[in-house]
Amino acid sequence: GGAPLLGVQGVSIIAHGNANPQALKNALKVAVRSVETNMNDLIGKRLAESAATRHPA
User: How far, in Å, are 22, 29, 50 from residue 19 at the CA level?
Assistant: First the structure.
């Protein structure tokens, strides 16, 4: 599989250097799902909500 690389504008999925073809295929599936579900926007919103809860204005 793959894991998201956070802090990047856009979707960036990283896989281990020794990843086999099946793992790379799964990483691509993760990337597609991330785009389809607007993962970056969702993570940003949740982080903002969390920060607002911990440090109210």
Answer: 8, 14, 34
Gap between the Cα atoms of 57 and 44, Å rounded:
18
pLDDT surpasses 80 at 53: yes
Find residue 13's DSSP bridge partners. 4
Q: Per-residue b/e over 12-33, b at no fewer than 16 CB within 10 Å?
A: ebebeeeeeeeeeebbeebbee
Q: Band the pLDDT of 42: cuts 50, 70, 90.
A: very high
- Under the banding of pLDDT at 50, 70 and 90, the label for residue 35 is very high
- Kindly state the tokens that stand for 21: 């073809």
